[in-house]
Amino acid sequence: MDFFNALERTFTNASIVSAITSTVFIILIGYAMRKREVFTDMFAKTLTKVVLSVALPALAFTSFMQPIDPKTLSQSTNVLIWGIVMYVVLIFVMNPFFAMYKTQGDRQMTLKVLSIFGSTTFFGLPIVGAVWGAKGILYGSIFNIGYRIFLYSYAYIKMSGLKMETANIKKMFLNPIVIATFAGLILWLVQGFMPTITVTDLTGKMQNVAFYRIDLTALWLMKPLTYLSGLASPLAWLAIGSTLGSISFTKAFSDKTSWYYTFIKIVVVPIINIILLMILSMTHILPVDQTALSVIVIMMATPPATVAVSYAISFDREALLASNTSLLATLGAVVMTPIWIVVLNIIAHIGLFN
């Protein structure tokens, strides 16, 4: 299949186009509402809390309410492994990109940490869910396990200059999204060993499923979780737009370092993942399918993690630079995410990954 044929199929795919337009339009609505002062300063923060404490945990948990099969299990394992190995790789690979800032105090370290850790949960998960559905959320949630480990260990130690604290370990494991992810993952993995119930699925077919598969055994419980899951994407996008509408672009736009960082974070880091995963798949060392690749790339093409930016501000590690890069990278991600979705869909049509 040639490039232009793949491009045509991408832009005639209603689900892909609608996912892209939904993301952009709802972010623009949030931006407009903030500019018109319909949304207050605290609105984005409130929305963010709702998304992180309620909607995303529900989204993560319900994504595991599906049957387990050898291929999905194999892909999930590979995603988990890459989600850990990739951060180790980036810790070393990012050094040359910011070598020119080595003599400028904390600047090199801050840029490096912010380039490694993106907003995979708040920015990434709603998008992969909108485009790749339950399987996208499943892979994204598993991929985020490594992210949480390194964000609350390596990133904290580098930015604070201190040793790992008990408080950060608690944040790592008592986060609602982490709890929902591990709970869902464990239930998904052991469902073949649990007592079963005979149910009729949506197609009218009788099947035996684990008693806790609430998507089939307890719709009265699954439905409210589904409603909460549905809030994740629109509320996150409204919050992003509202946040952008409350920030002055002048200083950030005049900072060349922030522009350079944005290019590295939104363009280079995803390309590094594509190249390495292509090599690993072709050599059968760590093969991933197209959905897993797409999820990983979108998760890595996100602006810096809010926690990482908070570290920079709290520990006075180039706080202004962190704020500027966060703004520009968010704008860059809004622009580049649709482009990345198109690129990934073209890769899918070309058949580079299974």
TrEMBL record:
UniProt keywords, alphabetically: Cell membrane, Membrane, Transmembrane, Transmembrane helix, Transport
Main location: membrane
Keyword hit for Transmembrane: yes
GO CC terms in record: membrane
Top-level taxon: Bacteria
Listed transmembrane segments: 12-34, 46-68, 80-101, 113-132, 138-157, 177-197, 225-247, 259-280, 292-315, 327-352
Protein name (record): Malate permease
